[in-house]
Amino acid sequence: MIPSVLPTYNRAPIAFVRGEGSWLVAEDGTRYLDLGSGIAVNALGHAHPALVATLSEQAQRLWHVSNVYRVPEQERLADLLVARTFADTVFFTNSGTETAELAIKMARKYWYDKGDAARIEILTFEGAFHGRSTGAIAAAGSEKMVKGFGPLMPGFRQLPWGDMAAFEAAIGPQTAAVMVEPIQGEGGIRAMSDDDLRRIRAACDRTGALLILDEVQCGMGRTGRLFAHEWAGVTPDIMMVAKGIGGGFPLGAVLATEAAAAGMTAGTHGSTYGGNPLGCAVGATVVETVSAPDFLAEVGRKAGLLRQKLEALVASHPDVFEAVRGQGLMLGLKCKVAPGDLVTAGYSEQILTVAAADNTLRLLPPLTITDDEIAEAVRRLDAAALRVAPATS
Fold this sequence. Notes:
Layout: E1 16-20, E2 23-26, E3 31-34, H1 37-40, H2 49-59, H3 72-84, E4 89-93, H4 96-113, E5 121-125, H5 134-140, H6 143-146, E6 156-159, H7 164-170, E7 175-180, E8 183-184, E9 190-191, H8 194-207, E10 210-214, E11 238-241, E12 252-256, H9 277-290, H10 293-316, E13 321-327, E14 330-335, H11 339-348, E15 351-352, E16 354-356, E17 360-363, H12 371-388
Parallel strand pairs: 3-15, 5-6, 5-7, 7-10, 10-11
Antiparallel strand pairs: 1-2, 2-3, 4-12, 8-9, 11-12, 13-14, 14-17, 16-17
Helix pairs in contact: 2-9, 3-9, 10-12, 11-12
């Protein structure tokens, strides 16, 4: 008999009732150190006082009015994002998947309005994850996501990850846009090099193609800059943002230049809940907090400390781990064992991690994690590694 909740997830047998900073408390009172952050969502940890205060205050004033009217909280958050990024304009959504849908529409409308309606091809990369709508799975193209779902949206071409020769050969006058994650999350914490991002930007400039960056997982301070692409010194034409921007409240945003967004006029796109007063009030507090230079500097410092300890962990368990990957507080442990086994072993050590592709264990702690919690996290990862280490003869 099918359960009342559609069984599309392989859920762990744990239910949490309370969160405090970097910790989650289960029904039985057990405390777990959270290195998953709701998959990079709880950027400021659980029940952050500033977010609780913002949400409580806004909840007593106004929750929802729809986009039929002006939404001052939405305008404030948009102004903050425009002031702190490359963007000229912002559209608010409820999730990262919805940002992918708008980014695709925006790029194709851009060329339609230029009189080149046939220019619809969007280049993406193997291992990508842009969401689970039919458009987003067509963009990623992996068999795991597309099998069984019938005809997919046409116009996407997947290229090998890191193969710049293949990219240079593929991009041309038929290319409407290039869609890429500066750091792949679901794909295994694989970071595109700064040089490759610059080459992609230069190729887009040369051909006129739009550059769409998916910073749903790697953005909002996770790498020590507000957005990961800043390290390469490039700017996109369109950018997808979600997860951390709401600090746990469902919120996403598509940021764009005026030129890229010119075709998105009244009636071309919409969202009933997107940009509601509750979500945008919380989002503004997150953006103001995370974009502060001192906050980002602390992320960078703590990231260095965590990486140093993880390198030592890898060295002490050569039969379990291969290497540390990623940037900032978006790190991965490339494993020699199944990462799912490490996740399960972590439950016994009261630490929460997330498996990813390419045999990688994701570590996405709250950006507010403390030095002591970093040390405790590595201690617990060490204990989990001992649980899964291959037996020696």
